[in-house]
Structures
1.
Amino acid sequence: MNDLILITGASSGIGYEMARLLSARKFNLVLVARSATKLEALKRELEARDGIQVHIFPCDLGQPQAAQTLYEKVRQRGLDVTMLVNNAGVGVYGSFSDTDLEAELSMIQLNVSTVVALSKYFLQDMLVQKRGRILNVASLLSFLPFPYYSVYSATKSFVLAFSETLTAELEGTGVVVTTLCPGPVDTAFNTEAMWKTNAYKANQPVSPAAVAEQGVQLLLTGTGKKIVGFNNWFISQLPRITPSAIMMKIKKNLASQRSS
Ligand SMILES: NC(=O)c1ccc[n+]([C@@H]2O[C@H](COP(=O)([O-])OP(=O)(O)OC[C@H]3O[C@@H](n4cnc5c(N)ncnc54)[C@H](OP(=O)(O)O)[C@@H]3O)[C@@H](O)[C@H]2O)c1
C-alpha cells in the first residue's frame, strides 16, 4: 500500500516546507489549512513538479467539529491516510490579563483539541492496517513554559505529554508517534511583538525549510522526540540544573520586549 500523508497547516511555514520535501520524495499528500487559494497553488505546483497526487481540504481547524468533519470528508473521498502530521498551530503573546480570551480559546481548540481528535480518528484506521505514523509539532516551550506565552506554552506542554504517552501506548502496534520540538522559526507564526522580545535576539529564528527537513526525517523513520538544533536541546536542559524561580526570572526577561 502506498503512503498518503496528511499535513495540517500546509499553506505556510513548516507545514508548507514539509509538503514540498515529501512531494519531492514522491509521497501523495492531503493538505489542510484555511487558505484555499494557497493550498490550490501548492497543489498545482507539486503535482506538476513531482507527478504526485495532492488532495486539498481547506477548513478552519480552530472550530470544535472541524476535525470530525475533515476526517469524514477524507474517508468519503476514499482516501486512506497512513501518516498524519499535526502541525497547524498558532501562538498568542502578551500579558494574560490583556490577551483576548476568544483568541486563546480558539488556540486551545486548534493546538490541543484538534490534535487529539485528528489523532483519535486517523489512529483507528492505522491500527486496522497495523501500520502508520503520527508526527505532532510541539515546541521548545513544551519544556520551558514562558511568561507572556502562558496559554500557548501550556498547549505545547500538552502536545508533548500527549504525544510521548501515545508513543509508549502504541509500542508493538505498528503505529509510531513522534514529536518535533522546534525553537524559534522564521515564519508567519511570529508577530511583530514577538520579534521585539529579547528571546529572538538571544536565539535567532532558523528557516522553516531546515526545521521541515528534521520533521520529514522524524516522520518517515524517526522515533521519540526531536528538539531541533543543539542550542535548543541545551536550553531545554537548563531547568534540570537551574532552580525554578531563577529559571522563571530568566524566561520572563527573555519574553519581555527590548527597549531599543
Ligand atoms: N515559528 C515558530 O517559532 C515555532 C516554534 C515552535 C513551534 N512552532 C509550531 O510550528 C507549527 C507550525 O507553525 P509555523 O511556524 O509554520 O507557522 P505558520 O507559518 O504561521 O503556519 C501555520 C499553519 O497553520 C495553519 N493554520 C493556522 N490556523 C489554522 C486554523 N484555524 N485552521 C487550519 N489551519 C490553520 C496556517 O494556514 P492558514 O492561515 O491558511 O489557515 C499555516 O498553514 C505550529 O504548531 C507552531 O506552534 C512554531
Note: The chain has a mean pLDDT of 96.
2.
Amino acid sequence: MNTESALILISGLPLPVLVIGADARIAAANEAVTAVFGPDLMGRHHISVLRQPGLIAAISAVRQQGARQITRYVHRDGQKDLRFRVTVAPAGPNIVLTFEDQTAAEEAGQMRRDFVANVSHELRTPLTALLGFIETLGGAARDDAQACDRFLGIMAHEANRMTRLVDDLLSLSRVEEDERVRPKEHVDLAALLSSVIKGLEPQTSAADVSVVLTNRGTDEMVPGDAGQLVQVFTNLIENAIKYGASGAKVEVTLHPRAHHQRLRGDAVCVTVEDFGDGIAAHHIARLTERFYRVDNHRSRQVGGTGLGLAIVKHIISRHRGRLQIESELGRGTKISVYLPIS
Ligand SMILES: Nc1ncnc2c1ncn2[C@@H]1O[C@H](COP(=O)(O)OP(=O)(O)O)[C@@H](O)[C@H]1O
Ligand SMILES: [Mg+2]
C-alpha cells in the first residue's frame, strides 16, 4: 500500500495510529497520534519520535520475528501520565502501532481498591472496639455492674457508628446509580428547609446553636427529588452545627431566582453559613471526596462518616446544579447550593 492510501485509511481511526516503513521512518500518522507525539512526524526516524526503550525493543522484535507484540507506553502530559497499551503489528514491509489509552481504566481500578481499603478500615476500627469490650464484659468486668453499664454505652455508640457508615454507603451507591436520571418532582424549597431545620432540633439544642432560616422571596417550585434534597440540606446544616458550633449561629438563606452564568440559566440559591472555625483553603477542593475529613478524630467524635459531602455533590450534580464552598479560618464557612429552575 502506498503512503497516501495508508494515510487515508488511518485518518478515519479514533485511536492514535503510526505506520513505520521498511526504512524505519514514520510512513503515516493520524490526527489522534499527533496529540501524543506532536505534529510533523512524517519521514522522521521512529527512534527519535518514540524514545522509550520498551517500545523500540518491541518494534525490533516484530521486525526480526514477524509476530505481533503488545507493550506499554507512558506519555507525560503536563502534570499527568497517560498510560497506553500499544499493539505493534507487522503489515507487509511496514509496522503498524496502535495506542489504546488505559489511563481512565487504571484510575478507576485504583479508586475501587482505595475505596474498599477505606471502607474496611472504617469498619475495622469500631469492630475492634466492640470485640475488646465483649471480651472484657465476659471476663474481668463480668460482676462490675457499673463498668458493664459504661461499656454497653460505648458499644452502642460504636455499633451506631457502623450503622451510619453502612447507611451512608448505601445512599452513596443509590445516588450514583440514578445520577443520570433527572428528578421529576417539583419541590417547595422553603417548606423543605424549615422541616429539615425542625428535624435537627435535638442536635441544635445539644450544640447550643441557633439556626435561622430567612426566605428572601422565593416561593417557586424547584424541579428536584425531595428525599434527596432533604439529604443535602440535612448534611450541610448538620455540618454547620457540628463543625461551626463555636460561632453559635447558623444562617440558612433561600435567595430569589437569578440568572446563573455557569448553569446557563435561572437558578435559586440556598446558602448555609456558620461562623465557626472555618476550613483551611488547601482542604476545600478535596472536601467532597469520599472519606475526606479535615480532622479525622473530630469527625468521628461528632459521629461523622466523611461521606456526607460526597453524597451532597452527587445529588447536586444529578440536579444539574452547583455546589460552592467558601471558608475562612477563624471566620466560618458558607456553602451555596444552586439549583436550576426550568
Ligand atoms: N461547616 C463546616 N465547618 C468546618 N468544617 C467542615 C464544615 N462542613 C464540613 N467540614 C469538614 O468537611 C469534612 C467532610 O464533611 P462530610 O463529608 O459531611 O463528612 P462528616 O460530616 O461525616 O465528617 C468534615 O469532616 C469536616 O472536617
Ligand atoms: Mg457531614
Note: Residues 235, 238-239, 304, 308 surround magnesium ion (ligand 2) (CB under 6 Å).
3.
Amino acid sequence: MALYLKYRPNNFETIVGQEQVKDILKAEVKQDKLSSSYVFFWPRWTGKTSTARILAKAINCTWEWEKPCNECENCKLIDSWRTLDFVEIDAASNTQVDKIREEIIDKALYPPTSLKKKIYIIDEVHMLSKSAFNALLKIMEEPPAYLNFILATTELHKVPETIISRCEVFNFKRISQENIIWRLEYICKQEWFEYEIDGLKLIWKISDGWLRDAIKYLEQVSIIWKITAENVSKFLWIAPERQITTFLSTISTDNLDNIFTEIEDLQSKWIDLTNFLKDILSYLDEHLLENTEENLRLINLFNEIYVNIKLFPTPALAYKTIIWNKKIQFNENTTTKTTPEKQETKKNEEKVETTECEDIKTKLISKLNSPIVKWIIKNFWEIDEENWNIIVYIISNTNFQIITKPENKEILEKELAWICPNKTIEIKNITKEEYFEKQLSN
Ligand SMILES: [Zn+2]
C-alpha cells in the first residue's frame, strides 16, 4: 500500500495540525451535540476531505468510546463506500454538477437505509449553481434529524450568507512546516527509514505545504536511498539551500570564470536550472530585508533570466549570457564612477542633450533619501527630454512598481519639478526589449 494511503488520518488523533478543529469536533461527538450542517473552510493545502470523512464515521459509529472506531459495521460501510447513505460530491467537477440537484432534491429527503444518519459531503461547495444552492437551502431550513451536511470550500466568501448562517463554520489552517516535518519523521521511524532532518526539510520545501505530496516524495526517495539533503536533491533534481547560498556568493564576487564553472557544476548535478531560479528568487524574497540593495539587484538579475530562459536553447546558456551582459553593464557603471577623467572624455563625445539628462540624474540622486529608489534611478532609468516634457522610463516592471508607489512617486516628481522647472514630468514603464529598440532607433 502506498505510504500516503497507509498514513492517511482515520481518526481525530491522526489529523495533522488543526488542533482547535479537532478538539471541538471531538467534544461535540462525545457529548452528542452535533450540528446538522458544517462548513469546513480550508486553504488549498490542507488534506481535503479526510476530516469530513472522519466526522462522517464518528457520527455513525456504533462503538461506545472513542469515535470513530474504524472497526464497526458503519465505519466499514463508509470506508468501503458500500452504502448509499454516505454521498461525497465534488462541486468543482463538471461530471458531478448534474448529480447535485438530483441528489439533494430527490434523495436527501429519504431516511437512511443502512447508517444511523445520512451524510452529504459537498467539496468546493462555492461552485454550486444558484438553483442547487436554493435546493440545499430549502432542506437546511428544516433539516430532518437523520441528515447531516458537511460542506467544504476554499472560497468561503462565495458561499451564500443564508447557507453559512445555518452551519457551524470551522476554519482550517495551512499545515505548518513543523507539523509536516514532524509527521514525516514519525513515518520514517515507523517504516525504519534512515533519514536526516535536512532531507525532510527539503522534501517539505518542494511539496509546497501539501502533506500528501510530501509523503509521496518521502516514499520515492526512501526506495533507493537514505533520506539526506544530498540524496533528496539528487533524486528530485532540486538544490539544497546550501547550493543557493554558494551560488549567490559566487555571483557577488563578479568573477565570471567562477560563475560559469558554478553553472556547469549545477548542471552536472542534474539540478533543474529553471526550478533553481524559482528557489533563488524565493530565497532572496525571504532574505530581502537583510541586504535590501544587493538582494534587489540580484532579484532583478534572476528575474530577467527567469523571464527570458525559454528564448535560449539551453537554460545554462540563458544564465551565462544574461549574467555576462549584466556584469559588463554593472562594471561599466562602476568604472565610470571611479575614474572621473574617463567619464569626462566619454561625456564630451556624447550629445549635449544627454549631458543635460545625466545632470538631471546626478542632481536627482543627490536629493533622494531612499537607497532603493536611488539604486533604481542609477541603474534602470532612461530619460527623454522632448521640448517641454521629461519622460522618465523605468526599465522592468518590478522597478516600475517600486518607483510608482505613492510615497516614492511623490518625492520623485517633487524633486524633478525642482530641478527642471517649467517642464511636465511623466514616468513610464519600459521593457528591456523596448529600451534596446529605442536605443537602436536613436
Ligand atoms: Zn465505528
Note: The chain has 22 helices and eight strands.
4.
Amino acid sequence: MPCELCGKATDKLTTVRIEGTMLKVCSDCAKFGDNVKAGGKDAPNRVVIQSRLENRERRMKTKDVYTQEEQQVEELADDYGERIRKGREAKGWKQEDLAHQMNERLSLIQKVERHDIKPDDILAKKIEKTLGIVLIEKVPLVKTEKQAVANRGLTLEDFIKSSKK
Ligand SMILES: [Zn+2]
C-alpha cells in the first residue's frame, strides 16, 4: 500500500489528519498528523508537509491523465528556478541585472532561482516577459478528478491554494 503523502510503499498505514485532510500515511509521515501531537518535540514542518501534499496532487493528476477527459490549466513549471537562471544567463545578466530590469529586489530574484519562493502568476509573467522564457505551462487537468475530490470531501485543493498566498 502506498503512503498517501509521500507515496512510499509500506505494509502499515496510519490514518492521520493533516491540514484538515484525512490521509493514510506511512510511519514517517504520521508524525505530521494534527492528531499526533503527544510529546510534540518535533513540530510538523509546514514546508515539508506542503511539498509532500503537492507531490501527492501531482501523482493523483498524472495517474489519470491518460484515461480521463482532459482540460488545460496553467501551472508553474517545476524547474522554474532553472529556467530563470538559464534565461538570465542567455542574456548575459547577473541576478543583479535581472532584478534591476524588473525593478525588483535582488533577494527576491535569488530566492526564486533557489526555489525558496514560488513566484505568483504576476511575478512569473513578468519574468517570462523580461527574459523571453516560458515559466507557466498548460498542463492537462482531469475534470473528473475535481469531482472525485469533492465527493470524498477533501479540502486539499483549498488548503494548497490558501497556503500559497
Ligand atoms: Zn509517507
Note: The longest strand covers residues 70-76.
